[in-house]
Amino acid sequence: MSNPQMVMYDEEFQEINGVIERLLKEANAKVIFLVDKNGQLISGVGETERFDTTSLASLTAGNIAATGGLAKLIGEKEFSILFHEGEKDNLHISIVGGRVILVVLFDSRSSLGLVRLRVKKSSEELSMIFEKLVKKAEDKEKRGVSDFPFAEITDDDIDNLFS
After folding, report:
1. With CB atoms counted within 10 Å of each terminal CB, which end of the chain scores lower, N or C?
2. Which residues contact 96 (CB under 8 A, 6 or more apart)?
3. How far apart are CA 140 and CA 137, in angstroms?
4. 10-161: CATH topology
């Protein structure tokens, strides 16, 4: 099967937000972001107004790409978890289901052990939600249905429009 474009439906978006909001509380984190591997922010909860979310999302994806290159150099497929420790804040970055990046920002009110434990459970839930989204996209592709508003427009249509 081809790799269908993924569309985020409101039902799954609400499920995703529920999972990361629960993770925010259970891990006693400050902020949680969910980013796709292209650097686009999917969702964020917590003290998000403090951050340039666009930059954070793209830099996180770049970080994952760079460490992926390092992993390949030493014979690993990828590093699925990254941890950055700062003076006041720490970042726990993990790849969820091979599709998205989960970023947890926490301080001394939490611990790496607690964050890792809670992220593991939440990652399983998020993976199931993204599997459901992929299945929806594949089912629609099989039926020839598209969720993209301009899917039926051809190159000839565009040429005619601007001729």
Report:
1. C
2. 34, 102, 123, 126, 127, 130
3. 5
4. Beta-Lactamase (3.30.450)
| Size of the chain in residues | 163
Q: What is the DSSP string of 80-101?
A: -EEEEE-SS-EEEEEEETTTEE
81, β-bridge pairs: 94
Assigned token pair, 75: 């014979």
Mean pLDDT of all residues in the chain?
Answer: 87
Q: Where are the domains of the chain?
A: 10-161
Structure tokens at 154: 């051809």
pLDDT digits (tens, 9 = 90+) for 99-127: 899 999 999 999 999 999 999 999 999 99
The tokens for 44 are 């964020």
Global pTM reads 0.81
